């Protein structure tokens, strides 16, 4: 049966791997870069790196457990698990979400992955909202989880410096007031080439070894992604504000995908929401793709949010994809 209550976020949680590396790490391993260049051009100071024996589903399950432990609802109420990831445990199948179900000790509930790169978590929230609104389940666990350190060539200064590993999770379900107010999402396939994974040989792994086999590696036209990112985020947020008949001054917080602090500063100026309202963790965790938005949500919600706050979540990334969500904190 369709649910009459508003649908919102009931609890959040996250997990970050123990290993933290700072910008000097890249200089120490012989890369032609500097700590200052990385921090000035991206805003990143440190990032977390997954251990050799951890997989994306491990990170996702730990974030999911954290969301379950922080919430008032029992795991037994969950009807589905969606994992947004660009770095699934297996190419093809099984989905990472099925592995998470097993690791959480749950059975039978629907599980699937979403592939929308850095927009993945926001896309997955919209799917959870649509399913619950249609009565196909009442509660869902939505996770963004990535092990991007395995998708970069650690000798490539244009990309290796940017990415980090981690996972964030949210339980979505009926709330008394507020919840999801509106969505704006889309994709431009014609820009797929500016950020993609291409099979490549002779790449360097995080542990310093060389990989001779062809493996998928991130290739990015940084400047094109920067420009496209700013453009789609600004257009999408303006669309969302217009559809919901709200003004930029009504927004209490913006949680934008953490790709580059300069992207966030540029978006802030263009949409007229002061930068103090942009919540960021990029200095500490780098770009964690689909994990980026739920990590910020989880790290800030306790100290920052009050009931009734108007929050914009906005993801953008490879595809080229984008997804903006207006949320009233419940
Ligand atoms: O989740 C979405 C995925 N990615 C993004 O959103 C990334 C968006 N793009 C960016 O964040 C920025 O474009 C980067 C941080 C990747 C690069 O910053 P930039 O200010 O756009 O630098 P650039 O690409 O214009 O490069 C300027 C110079 C170049 O040297 P030349 O050609 O001027 O001699 C690069 O080769 O900086 C050089 N460079 C570096 N120098 C030191 C590139 N990477 C590095 C590096 N250290 N790590």
CATH fold type of the largest domain: Peroxisomal Thiolase, Chain A, domain 1
The biggest sheet amounts to: 5 strands, mixed
Q: Would you list the SSEs in sequence order as H and E? A: EEHHEHEHEHEEEEEEEHEHHHEE
Radius of gyration: 19 Å
Low-confidence spans: pLDDT under 50, at least 5 residues? none
Strand order of the largest sheet: 1-7-6-4-5
Oligomer kind: single chain
Q: How many separate domains?
A: 2
**Percent of residues in helices:** 25-40%
Bound molecules: oxa(dethia)-CoA
Tell me, what is the CATH class of the largest domain? Alpha Beta
Question: What report would you give on this structure?
Answer:
With 330 residues, the protein is α+β, with helices and mostly antiparallel strands. Helix content is 30%, strand content 27%. The strands form five sheets. Strands 1-7-6-4-5 form a five-stranded mixed beta sheet, sandwiched between helices. The protein has a four-stranded mixed beta sheet with strand order 8-15-14-13, sandwiched between helices. It has a two-stranded antiparallel sheet with strand order 2-3. The radius of gyration is 19 Å and the shape is globular. It starts with 6 loop residues before the first strand and ends with a strand. Bound molecules: oxa(dethia)-CoA. Oxa(dethia)-CoA (UT7) binds next to helix 2 and helix 6.
